[in-house]
Write a structure and sequence with these properties.
Layout (H helix, E strand, L loop, with lengths): L15 H6 L11 E4 L5 E8 L2 E7 L2 E6 L9 E7 L3 E2 L3 H8 L11 E11 L4 E9 L2 E16 L5 E12 L10 E2 L2 E2 L1 E15 L1
Antiparallel strand pairs: 1-4, 1-13, 2-3, 2-13, 3-6, 4-5, 5-7, 7-8, 8-9, 9-10, 10-13, 11-12
Length: 201
């Protein structure tokens, strides 16, 4: 549930070695902005339920990447997710997740992420940032892989990347659980997965 997703800043971590894999990759000029295409992007999560795992997603989110110079790693990203858009393919469960027992979406309608720094290598990257959810802000680290840059049929330049993060939901006040004879019904760790595609503006 630490979606964050987030996330668009992952691409800012792409070093020269990764960029070369893209073939048509060109560095942006100062102030270049990329907007995430939600139709070709996903922000998903998984959490343990009893002995299995449940997967969900947030379907309404916006992200903007802005580079302040020719170096990708000096760029920034801002992501805003509408908490009420949570979808686990179970309407009753989704309603419970939106309630005060979990996300309390009426009081905390958005989940936000702001990047703080990048560590890149020729194999991938780590991107630090601040995740705010249910009124609490915590640092998180996303690890991922740069997928490249390519022009679409309309001539627009697109960039893609994916990454993951493991977070503890209790850090954000998502503490509800039920104790059974064999242990807690829900796990505390949440695995976040993101696959984003952004369009150069």
């Amino acid at each position: 549930m630490r979606s964050v997703v987030f996330l668009g800043a992952l691409v800012l971590a792409a070093p020269a070695a990764l960029a070369a894999q893209a073939g048509k990759f060109t560095k942006p000029g100062a102030g270049t902005t990329w907007a995430v295409d939600p139709q070709h992007s996903e922000v998903t999560f998984r959490i343990r339920h009893l002995v299995g795992r449940v997967r969900g997603q947030f379907t309404d989110f916006k992200a903007t990447i802005v580079t302040t110079g020719p170096d990708w790693r000096k760029g920034t990203v801002n992501v805003v997710i509408q908490a009420k858009s949570i979808d686990t393919r179970n309407p009753a469960r989704d309603a419970d997740l939106r309630s005060p027992r979990f996300f309390s979406v009426d009081s905390f309608p958005t989940i936000t992420f702001e990047s703080t720094g990048i560590v890149a290598s020729d194999k991938g990257f780590e991107m630090g940032g601040l995740l705010t959810m249910k009124g609490r802000t915590k640092p998180i680290t996303l690890r991922g892989e740069f997928r490249g840059v390519q022009k679409d049929p309309d001539g627009k330049e697109r960039i893609a990347f994916d990454g993951t993060a493991l977070v503890n939901r209790r850090d954000f006040g998502l503490t509800w659980n039920r104790v059974l004879e064999t242990g807690a019904m829900l796990g505390d760790d949440v695995e976040i997965e993101i696959a984003l595609e952004a369009v150069r503006q």
